[in-house]
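Hi all, posting the design record for the shared folder.

TITLE: backbone redesign
STEP: 1 of 1
STRUCTURE INPUT:
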């Protein structure tokens, strides 16, 4: 098997990434300004400092992903695509095929997302997003810098092996993430009935809760049908105020590097101090909060 990436292919990929962020960032900026104005009008205040930290972490995410996405999609995805069982001739005008792939990507996102909460080494990347202690739109861009270590693309390899190109899959995931920006807000109340199918701000507030009743719930990206099917749905409870952020706080709430790499440090420290290789590896593969004595 030979995998070759020409300079023009790499340049084309990075051009696509840049174009995508040029579209998403202005939308996010306008939405953040609108949300800020509404919160102030409603006399709810706005977490300016936490929002600035989220943007700082988001900038680090963009810079690191510009490199890692090229490796993930160009090399890992290209290698899997070489062994595809079929070749899907994808067209955006083929609406049924577009919808099927979008739903399929959301299904695999559910399992990638759920696994990222249950395997601590993967949680080390995803926990960056959950480090925000306020639920505002800027929280959406508080994303990890270590996607290449999280292995998230491997969850979508079945679609690559079925013949969908990695680039198209990446585009579908990006469209899903664009929708998910707007579920990071407290301004939209619970909407009865819709959460049988679609992810909502209320459902995602639950997902970000560190309360015992809310932990590891509502993993769906665009659709919540997966959570209903697999038993992870939780409605926002009127009598329990959501406590955002991590159960075990980072040593700094404002340092982007501590936020981005703090959990890797914690894993390494716990593993180093553990006795026996089973316990040492356990800190990587067991859920967050696990220890040999529990």
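Okay, here is what came back for every position:
SEQUENCE:
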């Amino acid at each position: 098997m030979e995998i070759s990436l020409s300079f023009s292919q790499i340049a084309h990929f990075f051009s696509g990434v840049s174009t995508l962020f040029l579209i998403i960032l202005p939308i996010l900026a306008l939405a953040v300004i609108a949300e800020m104005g509404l919160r102030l009008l409603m006399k709810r205040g706005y977490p300016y400092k936490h929002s600035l930290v989220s943007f700082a972490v988001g900038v680090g995410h963009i810079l690191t992903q510009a490199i890692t996405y090229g490796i993930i999609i160009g090399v890992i995805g290209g290698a899997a695509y070489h062994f595809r069982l079929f070749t899907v001739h994808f067209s955006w005008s083929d609406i049924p095929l577009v919808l099927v792939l979008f739903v399929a990507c959301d299904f695999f996102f559910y399992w990638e997302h759920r696994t990222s909460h249950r395997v601590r080494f993967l949680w080390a990347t995803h926990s960056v997003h959950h480090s925000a202690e306020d639920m505002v739109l800027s929280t959406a861009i508080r994303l990890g810098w270590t996607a290449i270590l999280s292995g998230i693309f491997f969850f979508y390899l079945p679609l690559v092996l079925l013949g969908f190109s990695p680039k198209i899959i990446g585009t579908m995931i990006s469209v899903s993430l664009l929708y998910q920006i707007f579920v990071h807000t407290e301004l939209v109340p619970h909407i009865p009935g819709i959460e049988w199918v679609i992810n909502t701000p209320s459902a995602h507030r639950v997902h970000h809760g560190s309360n015992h009743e809310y932990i590891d719930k509502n993993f769906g990206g665009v659709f919540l049908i997966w959570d209903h099917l697999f038993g992870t749905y939780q409605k926002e409870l009127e009598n329990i105020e959501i406590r955002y952020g991590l159960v075990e706080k980072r040593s700094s709430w404002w340092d982007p590097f501590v936020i981005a790499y703090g959990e890797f440090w914690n894993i390494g420290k716990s593993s180093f101090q553990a006795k026996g290789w089973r316990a040492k590896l356990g800190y990587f593969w067991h859920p967050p909060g696990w220890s040999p004595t529990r």
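COMMENT: The CA atoms of residues 197 and 225 lie 5 Å apart.
Let me know if anyone wants the other runs.
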